[in-house]
Every structure is written in structure tokens, then in C-alpha cells.
Amino acid sequence: MAAPTTWQFKEGVTPDAGSFVPAPKNSGELEQITGRPTTYWSDAIRRIRRNKLAVVGFWIIIALFVIAIFGPMVSPYSYEDQDLENTFQSPTLQHPFGTDQLGRDQMTRVMYGSRISLAVGIVCAALNFLIGVTYGGISAYFGGRVDDIMMRIVDILYGIPTLIIVILLTVLFKDKGVSPLVNVFIAIGLTYWLPMARIVRGEILSLKEREFALAAKTIGAPNNRILFKHLIPNAMGPIIVTVTLEVPSAIFTEAFLSYIGLGVSAPVASWGVLASDGTEAIRSFPYLVLFPALAICLTMFAFNFLGDGLRDALDPRLRQ
Amino acid sequence: METILKVEHLKKYFAINVGGPFARHMASLKAVDDVSFEVGRGETLGLVGETGCGKTTVGRTIVGLYAPTAGTITYCDENLCALSREAMRKVRSKLQMIFQDPYASLNPRMTVGNIIEEPMDIFNIGTMAERRERVQELLRTVGLNPEHTNRFPHEFSGGQRQRIGIARALAMNPEFIVADEPISALDVSIQAQIVNMLEDLQQNLGLTYLFIAHDLAMVKHISDRVLVAYLGKIVEVDESNDIYKHPLHPYTKALLSAVPIPDPRIEMQRQRIVLKGDLPSPVNPPSGCHFRTRCPIAQPICAEQEPELRDMGSGHMVSCHFVS
Questions:
Q1: Residue extents of the structural domains in chain B
Q2: Is there a domain that residue A57 lies in?
């Protein structure tokens, strides 16, 4: 058995009962907090940095934005300039992605297509915030009859496939001078805020029973203040996750609609249009479909990885 | 003593669905069932009872979180139930609440400074600088470091958070504070600090408390008078010293017999009254006297007739047929 540890006073210190003074009873400040404050967001950023895929996804999205904004500006070609002497060229230094059936530079067209895709993504995110969050928040906060009616409307809209809405809109706006891109925006606007409304409603339903919401009421806060200042900021985690997972699906919908000819049309280049044109010549010139398809894939992966990473970082309870 | 708050025949029923997910069959949960009491200015009224007896509902109805099903709440000669929303919002600043769970009652996304400042912000009181000044003053009042305004609630301990909650309640210079089990979520050592602070604040600021708790010893310490509630009803009211010495209602007797005595010799000889059975459901309370199903002295009359709250002299009120 080891010898019991003996405690000794430091050298030069003589034990003296008088040196022990009881702490004052009412010293006011009872505990000291030291250390840098960590907020919810700095914590989340720290967690997401550890997730390599999410970081890669984040940088791909940033790169995508840079290319979409500056790419077509610095490119020596325009997305619609035809060069009928140089059709169907294989990738070369002059045309890194080759040229299409009308001799247009495929790389410029893919870069231009990313503008449309990101525009769709931004519209989707904005509508999610403006309509989805507000709608879901109001529905849950007021509850009862209001909630019943508002959620039944969501259920009905949920039941209509996006495709049918777009086809109806295309028929409706045909020959009325509405650009097909606006059609796509309206279709996405009508359908893509629905999941957000449901998620926010669920969050607010549980948050509004928490004591801090009751406390806000007792200090006389009006309803809109409680909803927008107390409840929605506390639901921000799931909201951001939903947006990052909704945006790629909206981008994909646009590509899909353009692919089947319901979205934007020539000469405007969207990834869906490019892929559609490319498939026609897939046997002889497969690279024409390869690059737009790659762009779509990369974007989908980037957003989904970032979304998954954000979900883990912002809502650790969901982590398996 | 001037009466500051008068509650008359207050009822609060919650509608609940008892028919399952498909058949809608509503029943009412009688959380508070015909409760009347008065609170004098500067007094501390304790409200005790076991879990589910409607203590919290009474407190929340008084501060306007719930609309009463029936009855009136009169605060300084104003009937709170008849006020418009806007007028109610203004009166509310004089009626504040301290919450039970200091971890849930502070918005985790707001700094302590913003939390305490919010009531002043809502009612547009003072300039930014004045408000900031007031926040610092309030933090000092509740014994926290005024430099901590930019910190978030999760950086504080339970006791400190409860102090922040108290500072928020004090921001509008309230007269009446409903303290809904303000200490039950805290460590025993912290409980004493908070209770002492509440007493100091009461003396310095002339506050009136409705102190809701289930810790009988603490209620005795802080309260001037005590209400004992059982299943949505008040069974006994008395001065706190008196009620602990001479409880009259069988429920109060049983409650008090459960308080441990810190002397092992007396503790061993102590006779405990153990109540049989569980608290009946407030959806379907017993007929007549609500307590009769667990009462050791129940008689047939208890099932037929509901006992009234009778004055047994010098403000000692009891609702039992067999107390005289």
C-alpha cells in the first residue's frame, strides 16, 4: 500500500489560524464568470468547421457565385454569339468545354446558366423566408381556428404537383409577353415555401409554451414582437437548414423544367436547356451534356453537404 | 390594510379533448374552481398545495396570461377582466411575474442587457442611455455585476439567472409580483439567497408578493398569510404563524405533518398523517368536498354538500364541515 499523501504548506508559509478569514456573508457578487463568452453562432461555426464535406460544399457555393457573377463578364464570348464555322468543336484551349451545334462557346453558356440557377435559388430562399417563415409562425402562434385554416390551405397546395402548376401557368401566360423564367419563379414561389411553413409551425408550437415567451407576454410585449423577436430567432437553426436543403431542390426543378422544355428557352442558356440540347447529340458529342450535368451535380452536392453539415451544427439533437 | 388585489370567484377551465384522435369530445379541466381571496398592499401571501392543484394557473391568470373562465380580478379598483387589450397591457407593467424555471424563462438568443431592457423598450421609456443606466442599476439591485450586460443567459448559473429574471420583473417598477415557485428549481443554498433578496426588495421597494410554492418551511418564512389549495379550491387561509401552529383543515394537517423536523429525537416520535390514494383528476373532481376521497374524517354529508369557506375568527378561514 502506498504511503498516504502528506500535505505540506509551501515553504515560507507558516500556518496561522488568524490568516483564515471567513468570506463576508453578503458580498453581493457571489460568483465570478471568466472566460470569453461563446454564443450560439460561434459554437455552430466551430462545429461546422469540423465537418470537411460541409466546408467543401460551402466553398463550392462561394465559387459558384463568383463564377456566375464574373464568369460571363470576363469570357471573350457571349452566350448567344453563333459561330457557324466552328460547330461541335471538341474541348480546346480556346473553348475549354467545346462549342455547341451553333458554334456557341459551351463554357460561357454553362457559366451563364449558373446565373439562372442561382437566381432561382435566391428567389426560393427569399420566398422561404418571407412567406414560409411568416406563414408558419403566424399559424402556430395564433393557433386554434387560425392554425386549422392556414394549415389546410398548405395541405391543399401540397397536394398539387409543381409540374402541373408550371404547365398551367405556361398555358395561362402563353403569348402574354411573360418570360418563361418568370413562370418558373411563380411555380417555385407557389410550392417551395410549404415545407418551410410546416417546419416553422412545428418549432413555434413548442417554443410558444416555453416560459420566456410567457415572460415576454407578462412584460406587455405585443404579439408581433413576441413572434418575430422571441420565437422566430429561436427557430433559426431549423429555418436555415430547411433553406439550404430547399434551394438545391428548387434549382433542380428549374433544370428539370428547362430540360423538358417548360422553363427558359433558347437562346437563354440554363443548365437544363444545355443538358437537353446536349442529349440530342449524346452519341457523337457526349461532352456537350457532360459539363452542364456536372455543374448540376456539383451544385446539388455542395448545397446538400452544407445543409447536412448545418443541421448537425445547429441542431445537435438531430444527430444520430 | 389597503387591499391591492381582490380575486372573486375565479374559475379557469381548460378545454381538453377526451374522445381520442377521431371522435372529438370536449371536457373541461377545472384547474381553478371558484377561488376568492384578497391581498393587502405590502403583504406576502403564500399559496401552497401539491402539484396539479392549480397554484400556477391562479398566478398566471392574475398576470393576464390566461383569460379567466369566470370571476373577477380587481387590481387597485380596476377590474382586469373587463379591460381592453391595450389597457391590460399597460396595467400589466404593474403586475409582474417571476418564473419557476430560470433556464427556460430567459430568451437564450438575447443578451442579459436586452432582456432586462425589453419592458422599457416596449413602453418607450427613457432614452437609450437612460435605459442602459437603469439596466446597470437593476443588475446591482439584484446582486449581479453590472458589466455583464452583454453576456448571454447560458453563461450564468441557475441562481444568477433567477436574479436576471427578477431584475426584468423589477424594470417597470411593479407593485405586485407573482412569484411562481421562484426557488424550487434552485439549490438549497441558493434558495436562501434568493428568498432573502426578495425580502429585501419588498422592504426597499414596497412590493406585494403572491408567493407560490410547495416548500412549506420556505412559505412560512416569507409569508404573512398562507392560502392552502387543493384541487382548484382553497381549503384554508390564515396568518402564517397561526396556520402552522393550529391547522384546522384535515388536508392542511396532513401537509404539515409531512414537514420533517430537524431534531432526530422529535422526528422519530412524530406522527405523520399519510393520505391514502392519489390526487383525483381535475377533469372529474369528486362531488361535494373535493378532498373527501382522501379525507380521514369524511362523512356522507361531504359527498352531498360542498363546504363553504367559513371564518373561524380573526381571518382564519376553513372549508370543512367538521371544523368548529
A1: 3-94+174-228
A2: yes
Placement of cell 444568477 in the chain:
B160
CA distance A94 to A33: 63
Closest Cα in chain B to A34: B155
Query: Which residues does chain A have within 8 Å of residue B148's beta carbon, measured at their own beta carbons?
Result: 33
Tell me which of 1.20.120.530, 3.30.470.20, 3.40.50.300, 3.90.550.10 is the CATH number of domain B3-94+174-228: 3.40.50.300
**Greater model confidence, A14 or A65:** A65
Domain that holds residue A250: 50-69+97-315
Closest-CA residue to A245 (of A182, A178, A318, A172): A318
- Residue in B63, B106, B143 closest to A218 by CB: B63
pLDDT at A19: 62
Q: Tell me: the pLDDT tens digits for B249-306?
A: 888 888 888 887 788 888 888 777 888 778 888 888 888 888 888 888 888 888 888 8
Residues of A in contact with B106 (CB under 8 A): 212, 215
Residue A184 lies in a domain: yes
Would you say A244 and A314 are in contact if contact means Cβ atoms under 8 Å apart?
A: no
Is A220 close to B90, i.e. CB distance below 8 A?
yes
Taking each helix axis from N to C end, the angle separating A271-280 and A106-127, rounded to the nearest 10 degrees, works out to: 140
pLDDT value for A24: 61
Interface test with A, best of B26, B83, B118, B148 (most A CBs within 10 A): B118
Distance from CA of B8 to the nearest CA of A (A): 21
CA A28, A31, A32, A36 torsion-angle sign: negative
Q: What is the C-alpha to C-alpha distance for residues A244 and A242, in angstroms, rounded to an integer?
A: 6
* B202-215 per-position pLDDT tens digit: 999 989 999 998 88
Q: Does any domain span residue A160?
A: yes
In a domain, A127, yes or no: yes
Domains in chain A: how many in total?
Answer: 1
Beta-sheet pairing, B26-40 with B3-17 = antiparallel
pLDDT at site A9: 63
Report ipTM (2 d.p.): 0.84
CB B65 to CB A40 under 8 A?
A: no
Q: Which residues of B touch A211 (CB under 8 A)?
A: 99-101, 104-105
CB contact under 8 A, A219 and B155: no
pTM recorded for the entire structure: 0.78
B146: closest CA of chain A, how far (Å): 10
User: Comparing A66-80, B178-192, B232-246, which segment has the lowest mean pLDDT?
Assistant: A66-80
pLDDT digits (tens, 9 = 90+) for A153-208: 999 988 888 778 777 877 787 667 677 778 788 888 888 888 899 999 999 999 98
Grid cell at residue B238 = 390564515
Portion of chain B with pLDDT greater than 90, in percent: 16
Chain-centroid distance of CA A31 in Å reads 42
